[in-house]
Amino acid sequence: MAVLLGCSLALSAARAQQPESRPAFRVKYIADGTVYLEGGSGGGLAVGQKLVVKRSGTTAPRSGSGEVQASRIIAQLEVVSVAETSAVCEARSLNAPLRVGDMATLVIEEGQPQAQLGGMGTSRKYPQLIAFSAGDPLDEEAREAVPRPQLPEVNRRHGRVGVEYSALAGRNGSSMANRQVGLVARMEMTRIGGSYWNFTGYWRGRLNSRSSGPGTATLNDLLNRTYHLSLNYSNPMSHWVAGVGRLFVPWASSLSTIDGGYLGRRMGQVATLGVFAGTTPDPTSWNYNPNRRIGGTFVNLEGGSFEALRFTSTTGVAISTIGSRPERKFAFFENGLFYKRFVSVYHTLEADAPRDITVGTQTTHTSPGVSRSYLTLRVQPVSRLTLDLSHNYFRDLPTFDPRLVGTGLLDNLLFQGFSGGARLDLPLKISVYSSVGRSSRTGDIRHSWNQLYGITLGEIWGTGIRTDLRYSKFDSSFGRGDYRALSLSRRFGEALRWEVQTGFQNFISPLAAQTHGQFVNTSMDWFLGQHFFLEGGYTWQRGDQQNYDQWFMVLGRRF
Fold first, then answer.
1. Which of 5, 257, 261, 522 is the most buried (most CB within 10 A)?
2. What beta strand segments (E) does 191-308 contain?
């Protein structure tokens, strides 16, 4: 008995003398409250873990007289991002300035599983186990040490780049003729190189062109100006945000697309202050002018949660020029209030400062006032039904390109006054939608009704063809007419996609001389193996102003 008691006491003493084993990671870089460690998921670090930085050789008081040299905690860290061999931490509290070379260790409750795993080597001395009805505690402990996989959005690169050749030939006596070589790019690159830069969007442009006859933009040329391609920076651990390319200003999308950029700085958790500048290439803008330049500043306030109530509010001022000639000074406001997916309210408004407009030798002075306003209320009482109520107002005549009326991209610009709409998703992948409004512009001789009706068939009779058919009739102070549009699309597995769109439009307006037109636009997209693709298309356009046939072909590489 005495021998057993002696062995027990010796074993207890050995365990008491065993030093605490906790992983330690060296601080290799410090920047603006962010700490970079040597060691990442390969060393067992994971997002959310907490560490402490201790420094030895600091002086600590001792009871009685004198002082003693001891270690004390100088910082507490929390892991916010990890890679295989490095980790990014946020300093939660600092009792002294951090230095490169300091060692960070996991806090006790998170270091113990690592220490236990470290003692399981060849000695095969496992921690004491308790029987459970389900699960294996050893597996659960080991699972904590398995490096977490890299986030899927980090360094994700998908896209394609191709060379395009297109040709155009005039018809019905038109002398239009054109041949072009260009580039096509579609990009989806996120967290490039582990950073917070993203490169996304679609772009189609010319390298060279040979043409004869009038150089009028075709339907495809106009559609190419509506696409976006931009390089953006958004780091949740940084106060700065930025973007450059063909894009929307994120907090002021009502300003339409710009070729330019923006720069913003977050002020706390709610506010963002920013500036922007660029040109206005989008022909679907209500005040489209390809020679316009615009620049301004804004402040945005946003808060809430997507799971509950959320709000956003933007206020800004801007100035625009046509070439080098000043055009407008205006203020803009964009506000939204959202409650889950149930209800949303969105309003945008532009108000002009007084200005002088000179046409020839005549100068007209305009008074300050609202130049553009759009308000919409949307309610989704059930998942299959959406109701909306809108009000649209223009002080001046819109200057969008009327050749896009039949594409459906201008539906929100073809009426003024109040309108109401609904969309109902039916079984068998069928959806019906409608919008009806009454134009009530001050000075109109009579009120007029604007109508839009449409139906979407997710699949026609088991063929896999998706169909959308719509009809619109509009009558306002700046134009009246109607259009009918039909689009068909079909996927053949994952390698081939086919699409066709056709439309008929009648548009009478002081904005343009063209009053009648029809078009057919078809395209095909084919993946050639794993790395290449072939794209082709054909456009048939007939109307009072333009009559031509156009085809294009793109050959490129996917990655």
1. 257
2. 197-212, 229-234, 240-247, 258-267, 271-279, 292-304
Tell me phi and psi for residue 409, to 5 degrees.
Answer: -80, -10
Specify the CATH number for 237-382; select among 3.30.1490, 3.10.20, 2.40.160, 3.30.310.
2.40.160
**Dihedral of alpha carbons 254, 255, 259, 260, sign:** negative
Mean pLDDT, range 180-207, rounded to an integer = 90
CA distances from 66 to 60, 69, 86 (A): 10, 10, 42
Enumerate the β-bridge partners of residue 296.
276, 318
Judged by DSSP in three states, 178 sits in strand
The predicted model scores a pTM of: 0.67
pLDDT in tens, 459-501: 888 899 999 999 998 877 667 788 999 999 999 988 999 999 9
Contact, 204 vs 184, CB < 8 A? yes
- Which of 189, 193, 199 is closest to 243 using CA atoms? 199
Q: Which amino acid would we find at residue 350? A: E
Relative orientation angle of helices 108-118 and 137-145, to the nearest 10 degrees: 100
Judge contact between 233 and 254, C-beta under 8 A.
no
Domain with CATH 2.40.160 in the chain: 237-382
d(CA 52, CA 20): 15
As separate numbers, helices (DSSP H) first and strands (DSSP E) second, the chain gives 4, 30
Fold topology of 18-58+68-124+132-145: Thrombin, subunit H (2.40.10)
Who's near 514: CB < 8 A, 6+ residues apart? 402, 403, 507, 543, 544, 545, 546
Q: 349: which residues sit within 8 A by CB, 6+ positions away?
A: 332, 333, 334, 370, 372, 373, 374
Give per-residue burial for 66-86: e unless 16+ CB within 10 Å, then b: eeeeeeeebbbbebebbbeeb
